[in-house]
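Internal ticket #5521
Category: modeling
Description: The requester needs a full-assembly model to guide mutagenesis choices. All entity lines are attached below as received. Residue total reported by intake: 674.
Assigned to: D.W.
Attached entities:
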Amino acid sequence: MDLTSISPTLLIASLMVAATPILLAALGELVVEKAGVLNLGVEGMMIMGAAIGFIAAVESSSVWLGFGAAIVGGAVMALLFGVLTQILLSNQVATGLALTLFGLGLASLLGQSYAQMKVDGLARLDFGPLSDLPFFGRVLFGHDPMVYVSLALVAATWAFLRFTRAGLILRAVGESHNAAHALGYHVVRVRLLAIAFGGACAGLGGAYLSLVRVPQWTEGMTAGAGWIALALVVFASWKPERVLLGAYLFGGITVLQLNLQTAGARIPVELLSAAPYLVTILVLVLISRRGRGGGAPADLGRSFHASS
Amino acid sequence: MRLTTILAGALTLGLAGAAAAQDDPLKVGFIYVGPIGDGGWTFQHNEGRLALEEHFGDRVETIYQESVPEGADAERVITQMALQGADIIFTTSFGYMDATNNVAEKFPDVKFEHATGYKRDHPNVSTYDARFYEGRAVIGTIAGHMTETNKIGYIGSFPIPEVIQGINSSYLHAKKVNPDVEMVVTWAYTWFDPAKEADAARAMIDQGVDVILQHTDSTAPQAAAQEANANRGEGDPMIYTFGQASDMAAFKPTPRIASIIDEWSPYYIKRVGALMDGTYEQTASWGGMPEGEVVIGEITEAVPAEVKAEAEAMIAAITAGEYHPFTGPINKQDGTVFLEEGQVAEDSQLATMDFYVEGIEGEIPN
């Protein structure tokens, strides 16, 4: 075993890239759940983002238009869920699962003729001398722009939920929709906006996968990342800063286990492969021991109708 | 009155059904482990299915199911396909081995063909495989010449004989042309997960591997290598890859410098044809380059002419049956003798291969 061949700099740099798709998707879902809606369709919205983003980037030869299209595509998918669950009051769990299946199918249909194509990925930003610093240059200043966008989004979401009036209303809707309604807030509108934001984030995360991390379109390429994102929200007890921690932890273990194998570590491979999931389960158990649902919004998953 | 009408109707329908059964095309089913759009393994099996339709026209009807997980679910899907009236079912991944045999027991009139496995528990189960290790010998030779860091990476899927043959064959032939070469094996524990395959390739590149062989099905490692080449710093080596299962031509001329293509159509046409004219028998087929089942895709201009010539000479020798990639002397990892000088490996020795050859570090997970 030669652990010296693992460079911590490159390890951290690649874990940030590996974690960005689930970070974005989990952040969106967090806002949705804070508004009291459980959307299990993250996987479907992510893969739609991956497909639409890739197609748009190929057709327009612009990665940025690809990301833009993925945001819109994800949000449209989410609003489909929103109309069904908020206006037509369908069951959120069933609708969310259906959204995942629908997204997976539609994405493979759309992406069929794009399977073998290539797209020019995002170049890493060059901060001049800063990027040449040892260690920090690569870890802090050597990424593609979307990594910084995702970090900024975490900070913005945290500030929005904590300090703004709109954030307070959103949380109120999630904690008690009846009280929020009685105060004159438009529960359904707030929830629809949150759902659209969640879809946009999931779409962006999916597009990061197909445009930067892999970068190409293949059917089923999210391979369960949406479900990890859902678990991360619980893992993070509905706190944006902990979503960041959780995503980097999960991404870190995923990348670390591959690096350990490559370095020839004498640890059973099966254990290494299962490690990210084991750690997630462990943390979930620890959180649930604290009781009170670990900080879940009180009205999470409950339908609202003004007459009830 | 009404009852008789219904009965008469049912009778007509029944007769019509029986009549239709006479001219029914042969129904051929395929179970795929990944999506057809994977650009690799499943894509090639589907090309074989399309070749069947092309060759037999109206005489066959093909059905398929994509992305069937290996495990309990597979048995359900294969049963479903048998119930749908398939006459022959090709199950195209190693992990369907037990499921295929279990279902075959329940449907003795349906023929089952399992790819890359070795269990034929019932007379209606045949197995078929291709000698991918012949192709691995060729790309191993190219890899040994092309590496600058002397570190070759191999992204393994599952530790099964087929994959271990590939690792050993490519290592032996890389070592033959470059005695300093080192083989790094990373097990992805999946046939298809683009993000994970890309991460595995990236982990290798980060640790100084500059030629990557893959035994997983997606083109993600190629894309990761391409991205690494685009962001290559001064003095860093170019990363080279090989197309797997399918040509992966989109990544020519670099990073993909050659490929191993699985050509299943000759086998599918042969077997379905045999079933039609009644000459079908249980077999354990293992074709390779001579049968045209393993093909090396275009070797690009990134490979020097003399290396290309050496690779082509090896292809010719294997195709002509003059050279076997597992020809002794070969020792096992622990130093014991696997093949004596000049001895050629038996098929049975290859089909159960569960060890690395001498010189490869690390242990095979079990």
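Resolution: model delivered.
Comment from assignee: The first helix of chain B runs from residue 2 to 23.
Ticket closed.
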